[in-house]
Sequence to fold (404 residues):
Amino acid sequence: MVKRVKKNHDLQDLRNSILGLGEKSFHKSYYPQLQKRIRELQRFRLLLDHSHEYMFIFDVPSGNILDINKPAIALWDIKEQELNNLSMRRIVGEDTWQTMVSFIKETHLNTSDKTFLVDFHPNETDIIYLEMNLTIHQIDGVPNGIILARDITQQITEAKLREELIEQLERKITEMEAFTYTVSHDLKGPLLTIKCFLDILQKDFDNNVLSDVNEHIARMTKAAVKMRQLLDGLLELCKVGNIIGKIEEIDLSELIDTALELLASKLYNHTIKIEIQDGLPAVHGDRERLMDVMLNLIDNAIKAVDNRPDARISIGVKSDMDPPVFFVRDNGIGIEPQYINKIFALFEKFNPHTEGTGIGLAHVKRIIESHHGTIWAESEGIGKGTTIFFTLPEEPDNTEHPPA
Fold:
């Protein structure tokens, strides 16, 4: 194996040395051949050093690198003093190196090739995906490994993004099917009520029986109001994924205090102990939407603890988790564990005696997810209260918010 040439000017020195030796030891007729060979080597080195691929030649028995091109030196930030004592183990990592060793042993050092995928971390945050092709060649009876590596980070990233988009699309289709069924089912109730009492009214008018007219009209009005509430809730729910306002830093303690003031009329006739943890961290998001989140979560908790003498609502954060996990906890009616995942579904109401349309928590879920957060609920069962957990970004998120 020809000893590696470390610097471009060393090639010129080698050329001068060879020509100088040639003047003393060889006939001048060899000069043109030597010069031609040197130019070929120079061109070949230029090709290697200006390639978009990363190239290595290493001694198989020891794993020491014999030659490396400039793009690889730059990517791995290899210092000049390291070049004479550099191993493939450092380049590919221990796990990939052991895989390479196993492959080399399996081939019994015969000419063969294999491709490896290597995750390279140039710093603490970035990752580069490399496809490395290893070929074994015998050079002067010594097995040498030749590696050609190319950056496939863009392909890997695009493939992952494509998979995520397909998964999102499939989930949205499933949600849309459930949404369509639920809407048609729940809107049918008020319509049937109105139709029923219109038929009764028609019969009463035909028979000149007018004593119950006001009662029938009141029931139809109530059904119409219920339908209006459902439609308004649906409209608001549909807006959430499409409209995200200005993202700003929000003092969550201040937001909760404002929400409690807005809910003062509901708290007035109740004796509920409200516990708010001190030192809640700031979050980033759409202030108006996050106000909707706190209003809905606290309002639900108020409904859940209604009429309990020891009613208590706790609002806080688990700061030791990454990201921090916020929670709204009540000691109210609770939910059976098998139904816990349904509470964020559209029109789901687990206490039919409370007011509301069953859209509130579905609305909250969409807001949290549109902020790239997560939300879930926990309860140990009936009478044991419920806790709603959610996460929100601590840092500003300037990415586009797709419809939720």
Summary: The CA atoms of residues 107 and 388 lie 58 Å apart. The chain has a mean pLDDT of 80.
